[in-house]
Amino acid sequence: TATFFVALIGYPYGYFMAKMNAVWKRRMLLLIMIPFWTSALIRLYGWIIVFRSNGVLDKILMGLHLTKQPLKLLYTYPAVVVGMVYSLLPFMILAVYSSAEKLDASLVEASRDLGASAWKAFWTVSFRLPLPGLLSGVVLSFIPSMGLFFIADILGGNKVVLVGSLIQDQMTRGSNWPFAAALAVVMMVLTTVLIMIYRKVTNARE
After folding, report:
1. d(CA 166, CA 204)
2. What is the pLDDT of residue 113?
3. Residues with Cβ < 8 Å from 107, sequence gap 6 or more?
4. Please, what sign has the CA dihedral across residues 40, 30, 144, 92?
5. Most exposed residue of 61, 69, 155, 161, measured as fewest CB within 10 angstroms of its CB?
6. How many CB atoms lie under 10 A from the CB of residue 68?
7. Which residues in the chain land under pLDDT 50?
8. Residue 10's pLDDT is what?
9. Which residues contact 99 (CB under 8 A, 6 or more apart)?
10. What pLDDT is recorded for position 206?
11. What is the CA radius of gyration of the chain?
12. Shortest CA distance to 127 belongs to which of 6, 18, 24?
């Protein structure tokens, strides 16, 4: 789920950032890099202030008369997904940006000159050529998302169980190392399959 929303938000951001002039590119890149100057844990605790009852989000929604009482957003599955999307989004944006920046604009113009509509030109040229960047962003987002157990602990309050948090729990409190090892092997197999699909689609040789 987090990977889907990361791709949904990160692809257009990275694509249009690659089409901006040099000044705006630096500004947009700076917006992406600034959060990395702060610890990930501190940033996640900031989301607790946003999601908690009578927190920032509740006050905004009630101020706009969209809700009548505080929402129970903290320690829920959506809160965990938001935290994961927030943490993984820069990797998708930078991957798409590095790929879209190499796109030759003359290819889009040539497709339009040959009779392609604006939508078809985008789908066959503008979307297809930076596709390796999108797929590499999916790999960089999906693989870490399986092991970000600390996000589930902080924003999920141990109510949302991810594979990574389950492995950690079985190795620390559960003392069931064989089960944790089996889950780790399953994650390694999934990761390997995903990377093989990425190499197959993008024709990557290294």
Report:
1. 33
2. 85
3. 125, 129
4. positive
5. 69
6. 7
7. 205-206
8. 92
9. 129, 130, 131, 132, 133, 134, 136
10. 45
11. 20
12. 18
CB 194 within 8 A of CB 143: yes
pLDDT of amino acid 204: 54
Query: How far out from the chain centre does Cα 4 lie?
Result: 7
Beta carbons within 8 Å of 167's beta carbon, 6+ residues apart: 147, 149, 180, 183, 184, 187
The amino acid occupying position 30 is L
pLDDT of residue 185: 93
Q: Which two tokens stand for residue 142?
A: 């999906």
Contact of 182 with 189, CB cutoff 8 Å: no
Element (H, E) at 19: none
User: pLDDT for 27-36, tens place per residue?
Assistant: 988 888 888 8
H or E stretch including 171?
Answer: helix 163-172
Return the HEC string of 88-151: HHHHHHHHHHHHHCCCCHHHHHHHHHCCCCHHHHHHHHHCCCCHHHHHHHHHHHHHHHCCCHHH
